[in-house]
Amino acid sequence: MIHSRVTSKAQTTVPVSVRRALGIQPGDDIGWEVEGDRVVLRRIEPGSDPFDNPFALFTEWADEVDCEAFDGL
Question: Measured between alpha carbons, how far is 37 from 39 in angstroms, rounded to an integer?
């Protein structure tokens, strides 16, 4: 098991072996998922946030014509 410590400001360092395994670089976003009594750390791919494109949540507008029409909004 890989360890790190939480500071008084609730900060921690992602150990180098974890950064290498996930391909995490300075400035990358990471996500935490709580699964019962475990937490999963994931590297977040750029552009994977649905709020980057609010129309991505509306699947009824997902055909090619609509995507082109609403792309610049």
Answer: 7
pLDDT tens by residue, 37-50: 999 999 988 766 65
Structure token pair of residue 62: 């997902």
Neighbours of 55 (CB within 10 A): 15
- Alpha carbons 72 and 46: distance in angstroms, whole number: 18
Q: Taking the complete model, does pTM exceed 0.70, yes or no?
A: no
Is residue 33 within 8 Å of 40, Cβ to Cβ? yes
Beta-carbon count within 10 A of 43 CB: 17
Token pair for residue 18?
Answer: 């974890």
How many C-beta neighbours within 10 Å does residue 18 have?
15
